[in-house]
Amino acid sequence: MRVTPYLFFNGDCEAAFTRYQEVLGGHVMAMMRHAGSPAEEQVPVAWKDKILHACLEVDGLHIMGSDAPPGRFEQPQGFSVNLMMRSVEEAERVFAGLSEGATITMPLQKTFWAERFGMLTDRFGIPWMVNLSPEDCTP
Known about the structure:
Layout: E1 6-9, H1 13-24, E2 27-33, E3 51-58, E4 61-67, E5 81-84, H2 88-99, E6 103-109, E7 116-121, E8 127-132
Parallel strand pairs: 1-4, 5-8
Antiparallel strand pairs: 2-3, 3-4, 6-7, 7-8
Helix pairs in contact: 1-2
């Protein structure tokens, strides 16, 4: 079994996944639009180029998402996507990349439980935690 976050966006899924690929690395495996799919007839004309399904693969793991149908988007709440980093440098780079246009909840810093930990809600409305536990540090 694998647990995979599936994120919903308010019309900016493509921009979000493009940014996540830049910041997290990996590659976008899927970026399916409503146009040309069986779902095309279920959305307004202006929505046909919005994303029906996207998948980003990073180190063998996936983040999936789509644009919520018109009138169905709800602001994400009650969760965060947690990223476990391998080094201080990686944690700082990823946090900085996700921070552009974000609301910082907790700046990335050393804590009593982690070498680095920080929280933010990115410019697309997705809450993230960047975490580097002491046992995750590479020498």
